[in-house]
Amino acid sequence: MYFRPPKFITKLFPGFIWSFPEETDSVFLTFDDGPNPEVTPWVLEQLRKYNAKATFFCLGKNVEMYPETFKMILDEGHAVGNHTYSHQKGWSMSVGGYIQDVDLADTFIHSTLLRPPYGRIKPSQAKVLAERYKIIMWDTLSRDYSRTLSRRGCVNNVIKVLRPGAIIVFHDSFKAEKNLRYALPRVLDYIQNVKGYRMRSIEY
Question: Which of 61, 105, 117, 141 has the most other CB atoms within 10 Å of its CB?
Fold first, then answer.
């Protein structure tokens, strides 16, 4: 079972980027929650094999702890985005508290791209942040973080709904590592060798 945001949610936030429907031959891989010194280098190696570029939505606290791993992402030519400093759920925070956490992350990440953790952000928070950030959501969620989802199910969550312009979410984290190590090489192969799509980073 894959997750794609329902249409009423996307209509509530029309200024968010959910996909790139104008694209005809490209998809956009994204990785949340890193950098991770054990998982992220492996992800970069897999991407390199397919000449694929991706966007890494990083936690500020992880960039602070692992600056060398963050530098590896940049050196490989990938894009980076802000995923807050400490993986906050916007729904349970004040506007000021959430903005402060995002801004703290920006002191380490320096990106105009933002992805709210869990996709949970209040309209009041989004209104303020949209003045400085492009808010990037997704239309294809691998659910690699799920402890109950099979490794094959993680692959199927992506390939069964894959279409040009899709923004696909994986996670370069310990929690997702088991499913990710199985799913990512198979998804990369399917995207390139079965569908023939390019894999590009998100640029604004």
Answer: 105
Question: Rounded to whole angstroms, how far apart are CA atoms 126 and 123?
Answer: 5
201 residue type, one letter: S
Full-model pTM:
0.95
CATH superfamily ID and name for 15-199: Glycoside hydrolase/deacetylase (3.20.20.370)
Task: Answer yes or no: 106 catalytic.
Answer: no
Distance CA 204, CA 28 (A): 13
Judge whether 32 counts as a catalytic residue.
Answer: yes
Cα–Cα distance for residue pair 58/94, rounded to 1 Å: 22
- What tens digit of pLDDT does each residue of 67-105 get? 999 999 999 999 999 999 999 888 889 999 999 999 999
**Which residue out of 78, 83, 171, 172 is catalytically annotated?**
171
In this structure, what token pair is assigned to residue 110?
Answer: 């320096």
Q: What residue segments make up the domains of the chain, in order of their start?
A: 15-199
Catalytic residue among 25, 32, 75, 189: 32
Please tell me the distance from the alpha carbon of residue 141 to that of residue 143, in angstroms, as a whole number. 6
